């Protein structure tokens, strides 16, 4: 019985590791696709869901949990930045940033951008 639990635990751990690698691969694909697709907030409404993009502008304020208001001078949009990405970036509200992510359209709420990479720009 103990051996079956160990095997099950090892299989679960292996599956989780593979899942993490697949997510990291997805993020890398987004980063590569967005490298030559620099857009402005004003242009995002015309883009399809899942379009990889790069934005440059300022984080205006932290709204809640993983949501931040972003402004590039052409408009405002909500950025969804996972806690682990936020913590690793060293960015604070008010900083000028380059954000890479995917357009995320919704049926009943405004379009936002799910960020996979963000970096602080020097003024």
Automatic annotation (TrEMBL):
Gene3D superfamilies in UniProt: Bacterial OB-fold
Secretion signal span: 1-24
Keyword Signal in annotation: yes
InterPro entries: BOBF_sf (IPR036700), CarO-like (IPR005220)
SUPFAM superfamilies found in the cross-reference section: Hypothetical protein YgiW (SSF101756)
Domain of life: Bacteria
Keywords for this protein: Signal
Stated name of the protein: NirD/YgiW/YdeI family stress tolerance protein
Organism, scientific name: Acinetobacter chengduensis
Organism classification: Bacteria, Pseudomonadati, Pseudomonadota, Gammaproteobacteria, Moraxellales
